[in-house]
Write a structure and sequence with these properties.
There is one protein chain. By secondary structure, this protein is mainly α. 75% of the residues lie in helices and 0% in strands. It has 3 helices and no strands. Helix 1 packs antiparallel against helix 3. The longest helix has 28 residues. It is elongated, with a radius of gyration of 14 Å.
Length: 75
């Protein structure tokens, strides 16, 4: 479970950073349809803010995964 949380955290961080860079700078045109902020239609016009929120959620999930790993190591 901890490994799944860790992988999901990195995926969210990548989605957030990729969405932010693609929206602001127009990079990664080949990945336009792979980024979450471009797939969800209700995020039109809010791509930058949504990418930041997705990245922050990824960092929070990584922190939770790390604390779960430390708690499991103590027991």
């Amino acid at each position: 479970m901890k490994g799944l949380l860790h992988v999901l955290a990195w995926l969210l961080i990548f989605q957030g950073l990729g969405g932010l860079l693609n929206t602001v700078f127009g990079w990664w045109r080949w990945a336009h349809d792979l980024l979450l902020v471009n797939i969800l239609p209700f995020l039109d016009g809010y791509e930058v803010f949504a990418a930041i929120v997705i990245g922050v959620l990824g960092v929070a999930l990584a922190a939770a995964s790390g604390s779960a790993r430390k708690a499991a190591d103590r027991t």
